Amino acid sequence: MKKIKKIIIGTNNEGKYREICDLLPSNIKKYSPKQFGISSPEETGKSFKKNAFIKAAYFSKKTNLICLSDDSGIAIDLLKGEPGIYSSRWSGEKNNFNLAIKKIYKKMKNLKKDWKKNNAAKFICCMVLFWPNGKSYAGQGIIKGKISNKKKGKNGFGYDPIFIPEGYKETFGEMKPKLKMSIDHRSKAFFKIKKYFL
Ligand code: ITT
């Protein structure tokens, strides 16, 4: 199999971009949509896989490069899997995650008095590789955990300050980035596609 030597990382989310860069081998040439001045396409799919595919195909076609894209989100059991594929949209036009996190706590509290005991959640990530010739390959990763009683930690991005992974006591926001990246949904998705790089 021909190993990939250069790639566009099809995301306009800086937190994700950073983490995907760190997962990829250092000797691969990495491009961002920003460098080409391309904004993200509308995510019209109903699944992580479909939306990751939409993004990967879009950026690959625009640049004629192989694209690796990521569609991800947090799914909360008590909220029947919400916000799920709408995780980004819950933060509004300005990507305000204080707002999105407030919305989560408000919904959980409204649904159950003892929401703190019904706090199971998971992060899901689907990565899609798309080649300019139309070939594609997908891999998904999930990490189970729970919603913290309150927001904690300044590391990471998005919902990291409220997610405690199974087997740990601290939130992703409190964890050292290296540790988060060695156990999270993104690294598990990457594991399934890494044969194209390593
Ligand atoms: P692109 O579409 O350009 O990649 P986006 O932010 O819109 O950027 P998604 O549609 O995949 O990306 O939305 C994923 C959302 O889930 C996003 O708002 C993230 O903040 C959140 N999320 C995903 N992975 C996360 C992680 O590891 N830690 C914290 N939040 C995460």
Task: Report what the structure shows.
The protein is an alpha/beta fold and 198 residues long. The chain has one domain (6-196): Maf protein. Helices cover 31% and strands 22% of the residues. The chain contains 6 helices and 6 strands. The radius of gyration is 17 Å and the shape is globular. The chain binds inosine 5'-triphosphate. Inosine 5'-triphosphate (ITT) binds at residues 11-13, 16, 40, 43, 55, 70-73, 87-88, 91, 123, 156-160, 172, 184, 186.
SSE diagram, text form:
Blueprint: E1 6-9, H1 14-23, E2 29-31, H2 33-36, H3 48-63, E3 67-76, H4 97-111, E4 120-130, E5 136-147, E6 163-165, H5 177-183, H6 185-193
The protein binds inosine 5'-triphosphate (ITT).
The site of inosine 5'-triphosphate has 23 residues, from strand 3.
Total strands? 6
Helix content: 25-40%
Strand content: 15-25%
Strand order of the largest sheet: 2-1-3-4-5-6
Distinct small molecules bound, one entry per kind:
inosine 5'-triphosphate
Determine Rg (CA atoms, Å).
Answer: 17 Å
Order of helices and strands: EHEHHEHEEEHH
Q: What is the total domain count? A: 1
Overall 3D form: globular
At the first level of CATH, the class is: Alpha Beta
List low-pLDDT spans: none
Here the CATH topology equals Maf protein
In DSSP terms, counting alpha (H) and pi (I) runs of 4 or more, how many helices? 6
By CATH, the architecture is named Alpha-Beta Complex
- Report how far apart the termini are: 10 Å
Q: Which sheet architecture does the biggest sheet show?
A: 6 strands, mixed
**SSE-based structural type:** alpha/beta
Mean pLDDT across all residues, rounded? 97
